[in-house]
Write a structure and sequence with these properties.
- This protein has 193 residues and is α/β, with parallel strands linked by helices.
- It has one domain (13-181): Rossmann fold (3-Layer(aba) Sandwich), CATH 3.40.50.300.
- 51% of the residues lie in helices and 13% in strands.
- It contains eight helices and seven strands.
- The protein has helices at 26-37, 44-52, 56-80, 97-106, 116-123, 137-153, 166-178, 187-191; strands at residues 10-12, 16-19, 41-43, 86-88, 108-113, 157-160, 184-186.
- It has a five-stranded parallel sheet with strand order 3-4-2-5-6, with helices on both faces. A two-stranded antiparallel sheet has the order 1-7.
- Helix 1 packs across helix 7 and helix 5 crosses helix 6.
């Protein structure tokens, strides 16, 4: 869990959930977004690893993707039933119907989109992505994106990952959240009576 800023820019009233393909930048952007909203940050994969006592790749290998998605749904449910925070989900979290429904009900969801080439470059930097262990990573990512696009598109807000520093994407998200009715109060508003 990340730390919250002592002087955040906003007070946020609901969880903010980042969805999108592996390598789109959800975790990196989420870590930068959370302090701006005065919220803690959670990475769903890290929380799953803590709960299971093993890494995501081992969970996939030992128990299969369906079992992993069921466990992921339980972890996300636990997190979304708690106080507001920023949550970076795994790329396939939205394929689980209960997870999609819960995100829709409890949070503001943001689809971080990125070009396929960008996703491939980022997602293959480390060899820890279970779905990229076999086959051609480019083909796998294109297939997964085709399968998941409709789920990602159901997010409340769509943001294109920006070139350059991740702060550029954070700023776009903040602009969208500022316009979401009743979601954010500025620090000054939050302390006015």
């Amino acid at each position: 869990m990340g730390q919250t800023r002592k002087h955040p820019d906003y007070q946020c009233t609901r969880p903010v959930v980042l969805v999108g393909m592996m390598g789109a930048g959800k975790t990196t952007v989420g870590r930068r977004l959370a302090p701006r909203l005065g919220l803690p940050f959670f990475d769903a994969d890290s929380e799953i690893e803590k709960a299971a006592g093993m890494c995501v790749a081992d969970l996939f290998q030992l128990h299969g993707e369906k079992s992993f998605r069921d466990g992921e749904a339980k972890v996300i449910k636990r997190l979304l039933k708690g106080p507001p925070h920023v949550l970076a989900t795994g790329g396939g979290a939205v394929t689980h119907p209960a997870t999609r429904k819960l995100i829709s009900k409890e949070a503001i969801s943001i689809w971080i989109r990125a070009e396929t080439d960008t996703i491939v470059r980022r997602a293959t930097r480390r060899g820890t992505r279970p779905l990229l262990k076999t086959g051609d990573p480019q083909e796998t990512i294109e297939r997964l994106l085709d399968e998941r696009r409709e789920f990602y598109a159901s997010a409340d807000i769509h943001i294109d990952s920006q070139p350059g520093p991740h702060e550029n994407t954070v700023m776009l998200i903040l602009e969208k959240l500022e316009n979401w009715p009743g979601l954010l109060a500025t620090r000054e508003d939050a302390f006015d009576d």
